[in-house]
Amino acid sequence: MDNDTINSRIAYTVSQMTLSRRLFLSMVMAGTALPAPPTWGAAEPDVIIVGAGVAGLAAAKTLMAANKSVLVVEARERIGGRAVTDSTTFGFPFDLGAQWIEAGRTNPAMAILKEMNVRPVPDRQEQAIYVGGTEAPKEEYARFEKIAIDASRKLVEALRTAADVPVGRVLVAQDPLERLAYAMVGPLESGVELGELSARDFMRQPETEPQYSVPEGLGALVARWGAKVPVKLGTRVVRIDSTGGQVLVVTTNGQLNAKAIIVTVPTGVLASGPFGFAPQLSVARREAIAQLPMALYNKVALSFGRKVIDAPADRSVIGLNRKQEAFDAIVRPYNREAAIVFVGGAQARQLEEEGTGAALGFAVSALAEIYGNDLRGLLARSSVTRWGKDPFARGSWSMATPGNADKRLVLAQPHHDRVFFAGEATDPVWATRVGGAYASGVRAAREALAVLGAAGAKR
């Protein structure tokens, strides 16, 4: 993608700015039990897929539609990957991971909703800005929007004169409101600090609006959507060997053979080296994996014993607490006496290291500064995500380090003809989003189909 194309997309993003829950990004650019997935499959399927997240399921369904036999191997005891819904703890769907479908007019993942005949819910949350427990005056709301517009202009100008630049070199906060606004680009939107964020990678992403949620929870929808895909759960891959006539996949539950394989695990898992490849991955691919590390974005969900938050349902709250720490929250989701607080970047990593109690303390304190200390004694239930400590994710999504946005295309290239890669990290436009996972799975499946067709022609 050349600079003119990128700048055109950025300009379009700026022109479409609207105040919404994912405010700054827009400005700068089941309750019922589900059947277990089938555990059967062909003894030697055409294609083995590693990972039953959205990318793996999209690849499998694309291949199945082309009458190819598939088998998905999944290390977890469930499907969905980083899309998973807790439908029981709070009495409303709490998405622990993927929650929204952004840029809904063009997002490839809207195909999931269409296939499942699900009507999306527009994300039209009322938004409030707080600094030190006090709501910002009206003129500060206007200045916040101006900061966003100016930030977008600065990033556009920076990318006109350089191939890439760390966002933190361009956006340097001079006061608390700028600090909050820029946090909505970095840790509270991208899951990394501004100095670690590639401006080119960030600005390639389509504008957020319209943004949708799913009534049952996005994770629950993904589980229903993939329920008929043949999956071996609780099966870890140890080695992938494509040097022979077929691809040999060694797992903790035995060996499998296939004509091709699609690997969809996150870059954090690939970097940790849970399984080996023969032949070995190229230096360029290993470098791509290293330069597409996992960001971190966690959630703290809280419910209270009685009404204690004086706010409309589904209000979005962003702010700085009295320690000048940025936070993002949804209060009274689904019109319940509850809240979901979001943390990202270095702060999320620190809270993970300190433990669940630290994350709860941060979330409760941030809310108490706004809605009063009474809520401290009314906490009824809670849930804290720890995606960085999840061995099958190692984080929330991939983020390109500055100067390495194009490494996504390197990672997406086939390895040794019959080993294909998918996952949001491999999509240069929809990376970090469910749409990237879905589109990459379809893309990898089509690449595998082309190879399978060529192999059949040779016979």
UniProtKB/TrEMBL annotation:
InterPro entries listed in its UniProt record: Amino_oxidase, FAD/NAD-bd_sf, Flavin_amine_oxidase, Flavin_monoamine_oxidase
One example of a Gene Ontology biological process annotation: auxin biosynthetic process
Amine oxidase domain sequence ranges: 54-144, 207-448
Pathway assignment: Plant hormone metabolism; auxin biosynthesis
Catalytic activity of the protein: L-tryptophan + O2 = indole-3-acetamide + CO2 + H2O
Record EC number: 1.13.12.3
Keyword field: Auxin biosynthesis, Oxidoreductase
Residues that, per the record, bind substrate: 342
Transferase recorded as keyword: no
Pfam families in UniProt: Amino_oxidase (PF01593)
Cofactors required: FAD
GO molecular function: tryptophan 2-monooxygenase activity
Binding site for FAD: 74-75, 237
Gene3D superfamilies linked: FAD/NAD(P)-binding domain
Protein family according to the UniProt entry: Belongs to the tryptophan 2-monooxygenase family.
PANTHER family in the cross-refs: FLAVIN MONOAMINE OXIDASE, LYSINE-SPECIFIC HISTONE DEMETHYLASE 2
Protein known as: Tryptophan 2-monooxygenase
